[in-house]
Amino acid sequence: MARVLSQPHTRKALKAGIDTLAGAIIPTMGPLTGPVALDDSTRAGSPELLDDGGTIARRILQLEDRDADVGAMLLRETLWRQRERYGDGAATAAALYQTVFAEGQRFISAGGDAMLLRKALEAGLKIMLDDLGRQVRPVKTQEECERLALSICGDHDIAAALADIFDALGPHQPIEVREGGRELAQEFFLGAFWESQVPSNIVFEGVIGERIELQNTAWLISDFELDDLGALVELVTDAYQAGFDSLAIVAKSFSEQILAAQGANSRMEDFKLVYIEPTGLVDEQEAGLEDLALITGGRVLRAIAGHSPDAVRRDMIGKSELAWVDRNRFGIIAGGGDETAVKREIGVLESTYESSDDERRQLVLRTRIGRLRGGSAVLYAAGSSESEMTYQTELIRRTIAAMRAALLEGTLPGGGTALLRCVEGLREGIAASADSHERAALQILVKAAEAPCRMLLANAGHEAPGVVLDALQSEANGAGFDLRAGRIVDMREEGVVDSAAALRAALRNGIGGAALALTVECIVHRVNPPLAIEPGGLPSEADLGNIELK
User: Fold this and answer.
1) Are the beta carbons of 393 and 156 closer than 8 angstroms?
2) From the CB of residue 154, how many other CB atoms can be counted at a distance below 10 Å?
3) Rounded to an integer, what distance in angstroms lies between the CA atom of residue 417 and that of residue 498?
4) What is the mean pLDDT of the chain?
5) Where is 497: in which H helix or E strand?
6) Which pLDDT score, from 0 to 100, does residue 529 have?
């Protein structure tokens, strides 16, 4: 039978789970800590080394105490969402979440109203976000970019390599991370590329390696389900007579008869016929077709608009001077599109990106901007063992995500310093308010704003965090405590900075998540619930079963 846990036991159980998960993550905060070794019996070889709060949370699938597990999973979802989008700030979000929930539970237990407290916490959150906004500065030079990378990853070689890549490509361009050898290496590529698949390997027969080069290529860009052999012959003939050396057809699918025709064409020495099927979600495929049309100067032909393979005109066809195709992607180095139209579209996409707050839409927009701008890079991680290679690969990916956000939205003084500067505004709000819930919420947020810095000092073994906090709050904006040097410095001058986007998201996720959790009135345990391997909750079709109240 399912079991329902009610107040006052619910918040006590949630707090136990939140404290357990936060306790595994907060010790990784700061430059003077080491990674967590994950001993997993399902993994072969050495343990996995982790120092990323979001990934640590993701690896913890379930606590033995089912009541506490609910609180842990609420925090787990929050931290992984932070990690996925911003690459940084999960440990800060955990510290904020734990502090707000603990202090909020204490106030509610003393007679406060959970819903009124949540509303007041969300109002106080806006005060903190406004204070952070006044401290933001853009990243202007490659040296600042390298300092930012070093502040995130703590590795000089990785920081220098990423600063070089971002300086060359900008914040939107794709950067792929691959496992390499014993030394860090990087590689740059010209042009744009798309994820795809080739429906037949015939085109690779006799080719050395996994990639074919295409010169002077005509591009048919469509969502057709191509099965008209006569239309195909006409397309190939027309492209050949127009002087093209190859024809690339992008379509939703290709029939067996059409694939066989490609085999016959492969015997032509002076003309190549290539089939390409886009991959990814529908919105990614649609965006990819639009970008391909812009870069090649062609049109996207759609069956729903009445287009058909037997009615394709030459002015619908795109072209490129140099392109390539492998089994999982294709790219164009020199397209025949209108550069002015491409630049105009980039401007529209950038404006849309800045005004959008939808994560999925921003991801697609960023991919499109990077693709239209052209250029990409591969960074090869280094390591002497499987664990070390995996650790560095994940570290680089996390640093790239955090740097993108910082380059787009600026930086803040690091080490918890920026949050400490929010305390003054919160205290002014306390002095001006006569509402008990507003005052309690702002007092809770004062403790939350101090928590990351306090925990960083504790992790570094500092004996008197409170004394340091008092000293910092009397210093000028930007002053922070250098944990390595053991003294107060200007954090920006020392290169200790945080991504403004990541820190603001940590505030929203940590404080907003805890405020919501404080309003949970009961816990319903399902009968034999499925295990949520990925953060995001249990399947909606899971059966609640019979319920027993306790």
Assistant:
1) no
2) 15
3) 10
4) 86
5) strand 497-499
6) 67
